[in-house]
């Protein structure tokens, strides 16, 4: 709910534009561990995928007339098991569903370890609830089998029955199997190769890269680390595996104060949500959009609403901003305009997400908004 001034009193009003501010200042930035800022090249997850069948459904499987691949899969599986099905036989498989099985193979996984898998219907099955996934090979991008999946599919959610009516609040065509896959093949890791490792920052930043290099060299000695570019840092590491693991454990725990990131404003045009990563100031500008007018200036003179506009004045923050809505109120902000205060003022007079989008784009194009504007 939003409270905004009217001619006589304060009236609650539901804001149609969601506003979320994430503001960070350089003086409040705290140190972070290197493991939170960067990863080690070659230490990564690998996506796995497989095609399989879920059986044992209670009449909620694929309609075989519309999903012929389900019938073909059943016939192929039965032939491999020594069961021959006569040509032209019409199979009505109401208890079977064709599915895709997906998971991620964590780094350093070894044969025998188990993984959770997600089972998703491919056809028109109404529900996978109560079904059992048959043995399904899971392949990587190189088309090699790295795991095998099988088990009972769990479909979560909430169901209720009242006066003969049923209500289901969940998604019945997707389920999970806890520890449903077993690793069959390990992925080779380049971590133990060579006399150095590569650190990769999560976000490319030359200042942060130089600070990481300084922290590593201060802890382990000069010339231990060197920046390759704004993202990659080359670090000399011991040859022996046990010594290298100990070294990396100490390295990841080092604290580094990251550089302040570039000013950025993200606007979701569908929901009207706005996110800013730091305080963004505006230069002098004036924007007119429909029945909205936005004026940002450095003049300290106090402006008043037109005598015939029947508007009202509200003081918000410390900026010198005036935002008027035809036949509505005038909002004033004094000295040091910031984008957060502009958006608050626009919200208070009922601007729509489209209004915000147009005004911010105009400010960016004019150079008044000195931040990256990303619209999602």
TrEMBL record:
PANTHER family: FLAGELLAR P-RING PERIPLASMIC PROTEIN FLGI, FLAGELLAR P-RING PROTEIN. This is Flagellar P-ring protein. GO terms for molecular function: structural molecule activity. One of its GO terms (biological process) is bacterial-type flagellum-dependent cell motility. Keywords: Bacterial flagellum, Cell projection, Cilium, Flagellum, Signal. One of its GO terms (cellular component) is bacterial-type flagellum basal body, distal rod, P ring. It comes from Undibacterium fentianense. The keyword Signal applies. Assembles around the rod to form the L-ring and probably protects the motor/basal body from shearing forces during rotation. It is found in: Bacterial flagellum basal body. InterPro entries: Flag_FlgI. NCBIfam families: PRK05303.1 (NF003676). The basal body constitutes a major portion of the flagellar organelle and consists of four rings (L,P,S, and M) mounted on a central rod. Belongs to the FlgI family.
């Amino acid at each position: 709910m939003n409270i905004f001034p009217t001619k006589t009193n304060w009236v609650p009003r539901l804001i149609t534009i969601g506003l979320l501010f994430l503001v960070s200042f350089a003086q409040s930035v705290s140190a972070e561990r290197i493991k939170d800022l960067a990863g080690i090249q070659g230490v990564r997850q690998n996506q796995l995928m497989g095609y399989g069948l879920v059986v044992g459904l209670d009449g909620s499987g694929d309609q075989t007339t519309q999903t012929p691949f389900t019938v073909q899969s059943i016939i192929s599986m039965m032939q491999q098991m020594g069961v021959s099905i006569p040509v032209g036989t019409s199979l009505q498989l109401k208890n079977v569903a064709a599915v895709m099985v997906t998971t991620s193979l964590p780094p350093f996984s070894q044969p025998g370890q188990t993984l959770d898998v997600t089972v998703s219907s491919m056809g028109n099955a109404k529900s996978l609830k109560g079904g059992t996934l048959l043995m399904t090979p899971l392949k990587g991008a190189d088309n090699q089998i790295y795991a095998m999946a099988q088990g009972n599919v769990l479909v979560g959610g909430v169901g209720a029955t009242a006066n003969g009516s049923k209500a289901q609040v969940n998604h019945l065509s997707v389920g999970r199997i806890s520890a449903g896959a077993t690793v069959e093949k390990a992925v080779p890791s380049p971590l133990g190769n060579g006399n150095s490792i590569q650190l990769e920052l999560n976000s490319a930043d030359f200042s942060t890269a130089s600070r990481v290099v300084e922290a590593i060299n201060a802890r382990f000695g000069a010339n231990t680390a060197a920046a390759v570019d704004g993202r990659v840092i080359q670090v000399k590491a011991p040859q022996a595996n046990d010594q290298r693991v100990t070294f990396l454990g100490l390295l990841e725990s080092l604290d580094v104060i990251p550089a302040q990131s570039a000013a950025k404003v993200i606007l979701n045009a569908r929901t009207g949500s706005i996110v800013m990563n730091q305080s963004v100031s505006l230069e002098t500008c004036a924007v007119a959009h429909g029945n909205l007018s936005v004026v940002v200036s450095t003049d300290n003179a106090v402006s008043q609403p037109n005598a015939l506009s029947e508007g009202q004045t509200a003081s918000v923050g410390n900026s010198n901003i005036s935002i008027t809505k035809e036949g509505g109120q005038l909002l004033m902000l004094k000295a040091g305009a910031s984008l957060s205060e502009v958006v608050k003022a626009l919200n208070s007079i009922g601007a729509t997400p489209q209004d915000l989008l147009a005004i911010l784009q105009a400010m960016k194009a004019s150079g008044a908004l000195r931040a990256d504007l990303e619209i999602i």
